[in-house]
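Dear colleague,

As promised, here are the two records you asked about, laid out in our usual form so they can be pasted straight into your sheet.

NAME FIELD: protein one
SEQUENCE, THEN STRUCTURE:
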Amino acid sequence: MLGTLEKLSPQDIAALGVVAVALVVCLVCFPCYLAFVAATGCGPPRVQSVCSYILRLVKRRSKFNYHKIDQYIYLGSLPRTMEDLEELKSKGVGAMVTLNEAWEMELSNRFVRDDCGLEHLHLPTPDFFAPKQEDIQAAVRFITAFVDKGIGVYVHCNGGKGRSAVCVICFLASFKDMTPELAYDHVMSRRRVAPMRGSLGLHKQWRAVKRFCRSFGKRRREAREAFTNSPSNAVATPRPPAPPAPRDDERHVVRNVEQSDAQDANCSEVTAKPEDLAKMVAPQTEPPRPELPQKLPSDGETMEGQDPQSPETHVAITAPELQLPQLVHDDPGDGDAHYDDEENPPGDSDSEEEPPLLE
């Protein structure tokens, strides 16, 4: 062996070294790299497709089955015959989302769209891997468009447990107000899917779900802030409510205004109660005066409605003496005589006594 090596030239030894390194890379490093890509999902799409194809060689072929996840959402495996599609159409399905690669499919996209009359969205994704973020967004928009119209949507991959389950979970978390955990539990309660919540959250498909939910929540907050801060959509500042109309039992305000030539009107507020205000506004009326009889009875007469036999009820009221001014009259017959009373001179005075005014 050593003699053989001694006979080799340096160029031959270099060539043998290159071959040995290539063998080590092919037999050791490349399988380890494929295992790393399959476990983490970090790698170019072509390497992921190679890993998917190698793993599918030992995987058993799944039968066609599906489950109803939501009112218009169906999740299942790959349809392989025309009868499978007709069964889906009988359930109200009018659109389909496919996450298989081209080498996995047995029915072409043209056949599904033209011959079966189903709206079709094809998002090629390697098996055992998670869809790309832009593919998840496209799937969620596609599902939302048909669900809003009341049309059923069938989402599938090869077994209906990994890639397709990721899209359905993201849709529920986005438009059904669910957290990723609640959406996963909801799907798991309807259909047995891949245990992507395990591995301490390091599963490649679960990380894709969490990343989509974070980005979707961020876009929603930014859109809400932009809508709130937009001048055209700014919420007007609410005005305080108008005070209620004053009632009768409320206090009234009376304003007294005094105007002056030198200064403006001076206003003073006086608070008054309703009863005081009524007194102030009502006109001042004099109290009624008692009416006196037009004719005074004499000594022998009685007033109407009075018993003549009860003299004790008579009350004599004398009128006060009136002081009249003394008038001076010039009488040619009496010389310079002055009389205090013009109507009753001394010579013509009546001898009868003056009757009382009231009895």
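NAME FIELD: protein two
SEQUENCE, THEN STRUCTURE:
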Amino acid sequence: MIEVVRTDDFDKWLTKLKDRAGRLRILKRIDRLAGGDKSTQQNDIDKAHRLADEWRSDMKEAGDDRNE
């Protein structure tokens, strides 16, 4: 199982979300990506890679290159 480390920035962002159901969907999705069952593992890995690529792209566009 992958260890998911939550940052203060993420927690602040998540706390500010007004949509409680949306907040729960986000947390469930992260949980599935981190520990999904073996039948969906490759699909989950592919999704995680796409999410990471999108996040890196967003950070680069915002001028934040500390995770290069």
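A couple of things worth noting about protein two: The chain is about 70% helix and 0% strand. The chain has one domain: 8-65.

Best,
R.
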